[in-house]
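Project outcomes to date are best conveyed with an example. Our students and postdoctoral researchers have been running inverse folding experiments weekly, and each run begins with a structure described purely in tokens. The record below, which covers 334 residues, was selected by the lab manager from last quarter's runs and is presented without edits.
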């Protein structure tokens, strides 16, 4: 069996999808089953809306190749109603040409059902996971006097939690805490330090040097950043939204729904600076190898592969082109 991931990998600072798929790629290389050429592969993993035209053309020319669609985010919640067209299109295309579908959380599945997902397809819920780089050594020593809190987002979208971070900037007790935000923020802070987006190794170092992680993104399917913070042994305070509430099972995590609950959750996790080594807890995340194998197990090897007609390829190409054009016109004319 040979596996390909139909995705353009990036080096340096990047989003959670790139982090996770790079980890998946590494696992398949270790297993000796990764194939760089999708044409020579038995299974090709398609990520969300990326390379849908290529996926359709591949299925049309090589119908025996089986496609696994990785679905999770619902884009119109973050990017506006125009993206609901794309969300529905992704689900409709997966219904037709996917041989197996991975949802990143129960929340993702529930949202896909609202958009017309065909539950008769082979599907499975598989949470993302973190690489060994993010796990903290038990002997890791902190050398700061205040309790160190981190938050992060590569996106400056307001639904990524900027309102809550702005609230903390005004109301957190900075005589007791120090807080840094890593990534791109749409607001300026007075007390919270801002760090530029970091690559995976540097991000891991920052996480392992902290005690607590705040995750305030709304309607997030399965945040890699949240998972990586848990892997690093941080206590986590997360917005009770999207798939984040499901991820709470993997670490020392308190959920919040409003600003008061946010401050109460932070206080509830902290006893004193002297006890900060006990803030985090051992996590029970699935190993990368386990997750990599689960992605393949969604495929029924005895079932005939799906097909993609030439007309469906044209339809995909037309729809994607039309969507891009609408996006450009919306950008120009508002």
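After processing, the design step wrote out the following sequence:
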């Amino acid at each position: 069996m040979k596996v390909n991931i139909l995705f353009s990998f990036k080096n340096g600072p990047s989003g959670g999808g790139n982090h996770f798929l790079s980890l998946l790629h590494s696992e398949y290389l270790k297993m000796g089953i990764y194939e760089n050429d999708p044409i020579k592969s038995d299974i090709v993993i398609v990520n969300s809306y990326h390379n849908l035209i290529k996926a359709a053309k591949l299925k049309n020319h090589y119908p025996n190749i089986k496609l696994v669609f990785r679905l999770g985010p619902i884009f119109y919640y973050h990017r506006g109603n125009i993206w609901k067209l794309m969300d529905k299109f992704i689900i409709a295309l997966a219904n037709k040409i996917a041989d197996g579908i991975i949802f990143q959380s129960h929340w993702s599945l529930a949202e896909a059902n609202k958009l017309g997902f065909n539950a008769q397809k082979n599907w499975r819920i598989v949470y993302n996971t973190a690489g060994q780089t993010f796990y903290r050594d038990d002997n890791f020593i902190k050398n700061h006097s205040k309790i160190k809190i981190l938050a992060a987002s590569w996106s400056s979208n307001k639904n990524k939690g900027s309102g809550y971070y702005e609230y903390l900037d005004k109301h957190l007790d900075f005589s007791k805490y120090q807080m840094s935000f890593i990534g791109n923020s749409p607001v300026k802070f007075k007390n919270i330090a801002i760090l530029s987006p970091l690559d995976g190794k540097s991000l891991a170092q920052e996480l392992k040097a902290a005690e607590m992680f705040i995750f305030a993104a709304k309607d997030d399917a399965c945040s890699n950043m949240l998972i990586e913070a848990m892997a690093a042994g941080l206590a986590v305070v997360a917005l009770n939204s999207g798939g984040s509430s499901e991820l709470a099972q993997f670490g020392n995590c308190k959920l919040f729904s409003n600003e008061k609950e946010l401050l109460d959750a932070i206080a509830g996790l902290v006893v004193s600076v002297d006890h900060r080594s006990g803030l985090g807890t051992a996590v029970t995340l699935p190993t990368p190898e386990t997750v990599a194998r689960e992605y393949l197990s969604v495929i029924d090897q005895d079932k005939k592969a799906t097909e993609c007609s030439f007309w469906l390829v044209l339809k995909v190409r037309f729809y994607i082109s039309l969507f891009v054009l609408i996006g450009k016109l919306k950008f120009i004319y508002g």
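Residues 310-333 form the longest helix (24 residues). The domain at 132-278 is CATH 3.40.50.2000 (Rossmann fold). The training component of this project remains on track.
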